[in-house]
Please model this.
Amino acid sequence: MRKTETSSSRPTRLDSRLLAAVLSLTLAACGGVSQEEAVNDPLGTQEAAVSVPLRVMAANISSGNYQSYDPGHGIRIFQGTRPDVVAIQEFNYGDNSASAIRSFVDTAFGTGFSYYREGGAQIPNGIISRYPIIASGEWDDTQVSNRDFAWARIDVPGPKDLWVVSVHLLTTSSSIRNTEATNLVNFIKANVPTTDYLVIAGDYNTSSRTESCFTTFSQVVSTASPYPADRNGNTNTNASRGSPYDHVLVDADLRAWQTATVIGSSSFAAGTVIDTRVYSPISEIAPALSSDSGATNMQHMAVIKDFLIPDSTTTASITVGSPNGGESYAAGSAQSITWTATGVTSVKIEYTLNGSTWTPLTASTSASTGSYGWTVPSTTTTTAKVRVSDASNSAITDTSDANFSITTSGGGGGAAVVFINEILANEAGSDVNGEFVEIVNSGGTAADLSGWTLSDAAGLRHTFASGTTLAAGKAITVFGAAAGIPTGVSNAVGSTSGGLNLSNSGDTVTLKNAAGTTVDTTTYSSSLAGTDGVSMNRGPDVTSGATFVLHTTLSSATSSPGTRANGTAY
Model:
């Protein structure tokens, strides 16, 4: 560690599967392309008119002692649930400077997200959005002095804009909450076009769903059941899970497009309440931890509703990049399935070894990553293909243009592929012996590492001893010193120079072979080395050439020296 940071009419909503079937039959009757033919499109891509997924969250999930998101519990929940639009309360972070708030949004949601945060408030309301915020501001809440009603007009796909109002009503009494609701409804009627979508979301502090404020709000949004619920069917949202404090209420236009909230293999018909203490399996919302919703002063649970809004101008497409035919992969090797996607949020990935039986690799993973790490099956074949499909619309799909092969070691095995997979530059605490660099061989044969070197920008840090080999599909980890190797971590060595001295403000790590030829090198920035004990890792894991990401975006663990990111053995 070196310290050196205009509205249009809307068609009737159909279930996406029914719509796909209707389109397929219509095309076939007109002599067009059937769905089955579309799967085998020789151009290697599929397109279809789409409904765009929209996930809206109400979130007063600050924790700690300062009504702030600094401790990170809420950040992990945001990262694990991936909302598109958030009505956020107690919108504080760091010193609340523009750079601090931008850093929070980048970390919790992504660098492409926009935000509005009301000014001059002790516990400000705000809106964070994947889509552009084209207008924003605040309406006065006359009943409270330390926050107002924050609003934003968002340019979501399709012919309508989305208006979101972030609210934090008073705990004092139901009559005051009804006064706040009356004032807000008047603001909405005066400013929000009835032809646009409307969301009022946030912390209502309501003790029941029969409070008078809901009758008032029902003038502009739907307050009827069914209500979002957690894994156990509980619709209450305060910390003790006894009262319905938090809500995502939408107008009739948007409610017509509500769909089930699907996270991993779990589906919540009316939306969901995120309580990490009861969510199972917690891995579906990683990097969130089971303990996050029970953190000190975490007084509310996030609420999510999902919608499929029509977009008459957008088409969705998926194109498989690799393997796309002709490749030969060693059985057991680590490879990447790549694709490009437009208008698709999540993809399903499958492979076949015989051209007819398809095996799923994942039911849903983010389409925007464009890559998925895959350990090739240990079965010899010359008729393998992969298929990538829209997780919510199987009609949008693409398959490898031609077969690729899988060989076992008896059939040649393939060359060694050695690369840097994980780096911990900012060790936990102050023990620099704990810094490490993990090196992986994803190829089909062992690699002789005798005389190979590891360096950073400042100089040589480690030379591998004569006779050091790295077997196919295995890893070796170089620590700052042998004393830093954790109990249970195998195939690890201490740096021959006495320390790795990796910089927290950014550095370059280079692996060279015995001839001095660079085998792999990576330059990282302070954003990947700014948190004690959190490593940077290839994403997807064990994927040569993949971008380095924070380990906590791949797993609930902060690092994984000597094992895969999910904790399994090499």
About this structure: Residues 139 and 149 are 5 Å apart (CA to CA).
